[in-house]
Amino acid sequence: MRGRNDILADIRANKPKFTAPAPAVPNYDDHYPSDAAGLQARFIEVLEKMGGAWAEPEANESLEATMRRALADKLDANSLIASNVREIKGNRRVHADDTPASLHDVDVAVLRARFGVAETGTVCFTEAELTVNAVAYLAQHLVVLLDPATIETNLHRAYQRDDYKNARYTVFHTGPSATADIEGVLVRGAQGVRSLTVIPTPTV
Amino acid sequence: MSTPDPSQTQNSAEAVREAQPKPAKARPGQRVNHASAAREFLQSPIHAQSHDERVWAMRQRRDAAAETIPEWEELRDLASQIKTHALTHLDEYLEQFADNAAANGVHVHWAGDAADHNRIVHEIFADHGVKKVIKSKSMLMEECGFRHYMEGVGIDIVETDLGERIQQLDAEDPSHVVVPAVHKMRSDVSQVFAKTLGSDPDNDDAHYLTEQQRQATRPLILDADAGMTGANFAVAETGGFVVCTNEGNADLSANVPNLHVASIGIEKIVPKLSDLGVFIRLLSRSALGSPITQYTSHFRAPKPGGEMHIVLVDNGRSKRLADERFWSSLKCIRCGACMNTCPVFRRSGGLSYGATYTGPLGLILDPSIDAYRYSNLPFASTLNGSCTNVCPVKINIHEQIFEWRQVLAEDDMIPWTKKSTLAAAGRTLASPRAYRAAIKSAHSALKHLPDWALYNKLNAWGQVRDLPDVPAEGSFHDWYRQHRLNKEDPTAGDRE
Amino acid sequence: MRIGLFVPCFIDAFYPQVGIATLELLERFGCDVDYPFDQTCCGQPMVNSGCHAEAAATEQLFVDNFADYDVIVAPSGSCVHQIRDNLTAVEQTAAVKHVRENTFELVEYLHDVLKVEAFPWAKFPHRVGYHDSCNTLRNLGHGKPSELRGPDFSKPRALLHKVEGIELVSPSRPDECCGFGGTFSVTEPEVSGRMGRDKIADHGRAGAEYIVSADTSCLMHQQGCAKRIGAPIQFKHIAEVLNGSAA
């Protein structure tokens, strides 16, 4: 059996014998809108193409009401709403010591995103926002509060952030779970959430 | 990703009457016969046409996605350069990755080959009393025959990617690296699920079938003792790795059970986190035409109270690094774009390759795993070159296919009859006189022989197409002599 | 400037009109063209199958025949690719290098070297689907393949647009391989035939009466497939159209 030292020695002996420097990678975001509204519009366009929904709160509407309105066809009086955010109360708190399996009956998980990416309509979470990572996949639906001011232009910018360096788990969600594995027919909710709704909410 | 349209439903009703073509698998020690497996596939016209159209649709969506990125070709260049840099410094980056991962609290293992990998994972499972495992799709684990091995030691592995699960339930290999069941019609899936999940055999709606699988798999996910994933990228700088899925199944596999084991090929290393910007932008656009997979998951350390293991697998990769013709195949990020553009893959179906890696990618990877068994595969190509042009890391795929032909011919891995025929052709074409005589006899045969003598199984050309007519003016050579040289002398110009 | 005309083996044997059109076309532009009489083949059939050693004598004969010419022109993209990029079974002498560096495919020669502005003698009042052979498109750079991003261009179409009356139509998969692929056509006849029939059908749906190409090998394959299934579409080499072939 070859272990670490053998494998590394083989690589050292076999690797191509020339030097190839790492290239400099431009940011490629000159053509993105420079204002927050423009970036948000780009974000929404891609999010919707990827199967996500954008729910703009109406005047004087509570976030709770916005969520209920956006998920009207998915919620009933008995729905279990697990909220990790202060702005929406929900009826099930997620605690760090909950076992993942204990979250199997959650209908809606409500999370705050760390940031968004306009290029792909992506929202980002780490374990800090998730509390129990699995809740974002075991829930039937996901509601995400996103501060529009945190939307990055593209993935190059997104990967210049520091979030990943300390987080144990950093995940990009772009719309809900999806598959086209049967005859190329697009189906939402293959294994994870069936829907993903983003509500713009500035961080207070 | 396409939405359902009514014509597909009609197609599917007919497909019920057309069984899924299942090419015979080559036995151990046998050469895979791609041509005959492809013939079998084409004998099921509904499956064949649907496969070509669906896989071509992925190529078209890839084109449309690339068209929205002005810097697309530059990104391909950058991705290729980053991989070149990473592979020429692979020992350093691999050590950095392993050390960082260990510092993050991850258990790091090293596997020299497939057997090592399977044994190492088995030991981890044995230590934890694991009996039930959920896993997301991993080509590396396919390469290692992992599921088969685990069946042998009584550990239950459940695939959580829908396509891979369909293939597992049907006891069939995946046919495509991204869409493992793309060769199946929905009626085929309906039959498989009716038998294995107890779904309605008369319902072949894709939404219904997907939901059936979701309902059947969820309890297995909640009940699993361990979860397994592969990795698309491993980042030296952080010791973390990235998994890209559309279903969220890797996140379920990694986050629901307490124990997460990730199998990672040593070539997956990229130096820096910022390199991911380049690769994530290219990966799903190349694969399916979407700007990103629905889930891009960065695992760096175990969840509190959990345990994470990484198995770094060589399995021939360090050896391939030494070959100056083929080392760049290690740049591959398994997007499947080369398959989607390949006209031969689309017409023959992935199972016809009889190998873990199918399509153009398989043509250059499989012979490095078993040269004799896969010696026919580099010939299953027209060398049209579109694979090279779609490759997001700019592997010169079609040139490597061409190189493999030479390697196999020189190592006497191609059939003797083929080599001796070509040697005879080489002798004829090296002699002007023999060449002229050959043309004369070909013309004579075509003019005088009856069809039954021209069109038989010895004439592979004539199996699917007619032979050309004999030109009235004879050969160009004859014409030139008659019109441009001494018209009186029938041998003018010929060298004796 | 003396041009050596290379008429590849299958054109010599079955499509002499392609060689004749190439010769006449070059002469119309005042070129001094010679046809070396002992030529046979470029070695491609063997090399295409990985049998380089078996191609060495053929490659040497090719070089012997053409080394004395300033330029070599051939109406076949795949043969020019073989000569330029893969004629490696023989020692790379000065003669071999000269031949490899100075061999041109006809369209390239007309478009890039002669920079032809007009074909006043040519009329082709038909709907034409142009077949980009994979070798001319991706190995010789005749145009922008559909899978690459960048400005569109096509040397053969630029030439054909100068022909009076011609109407170019485009199949839905503009540069899908027709399935010839050299020895692939006989080692994988079913896949090859299927690709050929699909290609013809795609051109047919686009309304093409003729399929025109710079590679006779692709045309020979497609023509054979068309005859087998009774498809009415016709085939011409681009040299014939540019040289004023009526139909």
TrEMBL record, chain A:
Residues 101-199 form the LUD domain. It comes from the Bacteria. This is LUD domain-containing protein. It comes from Salinisphaera hydrothermalis (strain C41B8).
TrEMBL record, chain B:
Keywords: 4Fe-4S, Electron transport, Iron, Iron-sulfur, Metal-binding, Repeat, Transport. The keyword Electron transport applies. Residues 1-36 are annotated as: Disordered. Residues 1-13 have a biased composition (Polar residues). The keyword Translocase does not apply. Signal peptide: none annotated. One of its GO terms (molecular function) is metal ion binding. GO terms for biological process: lactate metabolic process. It holds the Pfam family LUD_dom. Residues 323-350 form the 4Fe-4S ferredoxin-type domain. PANTHER family: LACTATE UTILIZATION PROTEIN B. This is Oxidoreductase, 4Fe-4S ferredoxin domain. The lineage of its organism: Bacteria, Pseudomonadati, Pseudomonadota, Gammaproteobacteria, Salinisphaerales.
Automatic annotation (TrEMBL), chain C:
GO terms for molecular function: oxidoreductase activity. Signal peptide: none annotated. Residues 4-84, 128-221 form the Cysteine-rich domain. Coiled coil: none annotated. InterPro entries: Cys_rich_dom. GO terms for cellular component: cytosol. PANTHER family: LACTATE UTILIZATION PROTEIN A, UNCHARACTERIZED PROTEIN YKGE. This is Fe-S oxidoreductase.
